[in-house]
From TrEMBL:
Source organism: Cherax quadricarinatus (Australian red claw crayfish)
InterPro entries xrefs: MFS, MFS_trans_sf, Proton-linked_MCT
MF (Gene Ontology): monocarboxylic acid transmembrane transporter activity
Name listed for the protein in its UniProt record: Monocarboxylate transporter
Cited Gene3D superfamilies: MFS general substrate transporter like domains
Superkingdom classification of source: Eukaryota
TM ranges: 12-34, 40-67, 74-94, 106-127, 264-288, 300-317, 329-350, 356-375, 387-411, 417-439
Record's keyword terms, sorted: Membrane, Transmembrane, Transmembrane helix
UniProt-listed Pfam families: MFS_1
PANTHER family, A to Z: MONOCARBOXYLATE TRANSPORTER (PTHR11360), RE01051P (PTHR11360:SF306)
Length: 464
């Protein structure tokens, strides 16, 4: 669903998508409480909850960096802390509710708790709503410049040519910058004067312009809108829905084309191998320890210790990413290495204390990588490409879950050994670290391709 999130945002907006996904996830749990048969859970929990939760989680990862610049790492650490706290507190709470109220009551209560996500989604305001307004110093233009500016706007607005033009305070840069260029072409505007106009264009006081007659550039011409709204009221609602659906499909397909970049492919490979490796490892640890003669309480301690270390490292690493001297990429790759080493080591241990210590290192490796997961995407591809990169990477991770899970089970059934299965998962995580060494070559390839695309228009213009 991460692939569909960005096109949905383009059609409905941040808050509507967040609220709808939260409501859908809550409904999935509520109707699961009245499930007539176990097969119904494949529809309610797997399908409906997967769609709603997938969009909600992707939305949080994508929207957070847009609100922060200098403190982006601290904000990311707070979000990561919330995710880890949910993983730590959620299972005991679900077990307590099930013991007290049974399956139906516990599922209804959890559905009600999920519905509180709508409150958080209501705060997904556009950043422009909260920008601080700054006062700029007003600048008066010479008389001849005012006349030239009036002449330019009179030509652009033939309807106002017969009326006397009275100039008031000008708003926006779209009228002043063409004026500055026109004056510069005539040789009457110096570079210092032009820069002064461009700096103070939002607060220039002109006394000879009629703002009502000044033609403005539509926003759609300044900013490319890949998902425009359907505003024709004469068309049927079914036609509008079908057009919206087609735009979402086209937007999803367009986001997938970002996989043509080798850098995105490496990021997708990193996420696929790492997330599939460590998730399957955590699922198989209790069974491996039970087969080795350990109790479920011992395995619970190992999982809890790894989750706590995961939480601490996510918060620390994300906060450190705000400092310029902190090497984010080295820490990101180190998380791969530490996680894979602990996965190779754990099956060889016998004593419980060493197993707990190894699982603590396992949690530290996960925290070091996941704390920089989206930050690394921004560092490699830029903030503007975060949404399609995150969507394409999540798509690859989801496809990996369909392949890695059965493969690990097949290895376990074939070898009758949990150790070999864990080593196979450790090898997939190690592949994430090794693939990162291809990133410099991928960066150079993308740079050369961008240079070629930039040179082709120049050659065409020179021929013309």
């Amino acid at each position: 669903m991460a692939l569909v999130t960005r096109p949905l945002i383009g059609e409905l907006g941040w808050r509507k998508v967040g609220i709808l996904s939260s409501v859908l996830t809550s409904i999935a749990f509520v109707i699961s409480a009245f499930s007539p048969c176990p097969e119904f859970l494949f529809f309610s929990i797997s399908l409906l909850s997967g769609i709603g939760a997938g969009i909600a989680v992707s939305l949080c990862f994508i929207i957070l960096p847009l609100y922060f610049d200098r403190k982006r790492g601290v904000a990311n650490s707070i979000m990561m802390a919330g995710i880890c706290m949910g993983q730590i507190v959620g299972p005991p709470v679900a077990r307590f509710l099930q013991d007290e109220y049974g399956f139906k009551g516990a599922t209804l209560i959890i559905g009600a708790l999920i519905l509180n996500s709508c409150v958080g989604a209501c705060f997904f305001h556009p950043v422009e709503w909260h920008l601080k307004k700054t006062r700029r110093e007003a600048v008066s233009l010479p008389q001849e410049d005012e006349a030239l500016l009036c002449e330019q706007n009179a030509k652009r607005n033939s309807a106002a040519s017969n009326s006397q033009i009275s100039c008031n305070e000008s708003k926006g840069d779209q009228d002043l910058m063409p004026f500055a260029m026109l004056k510069k072409q005539r040789g009457g505007l110096h570079s210092a004067e032009a820069s002064s106009i461009s700096r103070n264009s939002s607060s220039l006081c002109i006394s000879t312009i009629d703002i009502a007659g000044v033609g403005t550039i539509p926003v759609s011409e300044l900013i490319e809108e890949p998902y425009p709204y359907v505003q024709d009221s004469n068309r049927s609602s079914s036609f509008c829905i079908s057009k919206t659906f087609l735009r979402i499909v086209r937007g999803t397909a367009k986001d997938l084309t970002i996989l043509r970049s080798p850098r995105v492919c490496i990021l997708a490979l990193n996420g696929t191998c790492f997330l599939n490796g460590y998730f399957n490892f955590m699922m198989i640890v209790p069974f491996a320890m039970q087969a080795a003669g350990r109790s479920l309480e011992d395995s619970a301690w190992c999982i809890s210790i790894s989750s706590i270390c995961n939480l601490l490292l996510r918060v620390v690493v994300s906060s450190l990413s705000d400092f310029p001297r902190f090497n984010k990429r080295a820490c990101y790759v180190s998380g791969f290495v530490v996680t894979s080493l602990t996965m190779f080591t754990f099956p060889l241990l016998v004593e419980l204390r060493w197993q707990i210590l190894t699982m603590a290192g396992f949690g530290c490796g996960i925290g070091a990588t996941m704390g920089l997961y989206t930050i690394t995407m921004i560092d490699v591809m830029g903030l503007d490409s975060l949404a399609p990169v995150f969507g394409a990477t999540s798509f690859a991770v989801a496809f990996g879950f369909l392949c890695f899970g059965p493969m690990i089970g097949f290895i376990r059934d074939l070898t009758r050994s949990y150790a070999i299965s864990m080593w196979a998962m450790g090898g997939t995580v190690l592949c994430s670290a090794l693939s990162w060494f291809l990133m410099p070559a991928a960066t150079r390839y993308d740079q050369r391709r961008a240079d070629k695309q930039h040179q082709q228009p120049e050659k065409t213009n020179s021929k013309i």
